[in-house]
Amino acid sequence: MTDPFRPVGDGARATAVTLMQLPHAALATLTGQGAPFVTRIALARDPGGVPLTLVSRLALHTEALLTGASCSLLLGEPGDKGDPLTHPRLTVQARPAPVLRDDPGFDDLAQHYISQRPKAQLYIGFTDFLLVRLMPETAFLNGGFGKAYRLTPGDLGLASP
Description:
InterPro entries: HutZ, Split_barrel_FMN-bd. The protein is an alpha+beta fold and 161 residues long. It has three helices and eight strands. The radius of gyration is 16 Å and the shape is globular. It starts with 9 loop residues before the first helix and ends in a 10-residue tail after the last strand.
């Protein structure tokens, strides 16, 4: 089978970096029973640019994130017109890194999160909430028909894990 991925150039990197800045994404995890589960999450970025989300322990996806099992993000928006599959989208395979309330860096990271997502101030203090860094391991950019790229964390503007 022919490798479907094109060589990664500056254009693909720029598109991926732009998509990485979106304020929300679809998050895919596996439940404890092994069933797929997808939800929408709000995103911010930690000081190093790593995707960061605030989750409640009451949410089904949080259980999966706390196990450290791989997860996946889908970032991208279809345009108002035309085929939604022609618009760029980025799939990021990531490793969750929870930051619990009693972790030494939680308060500073929480303030950093609030600086990007001010409405989170309303509930970030609830005891069931925690932050989770979503550490990219690899990513796949679909830039439209025939424009598929396999990307590294470096291509996303991040240091390799």
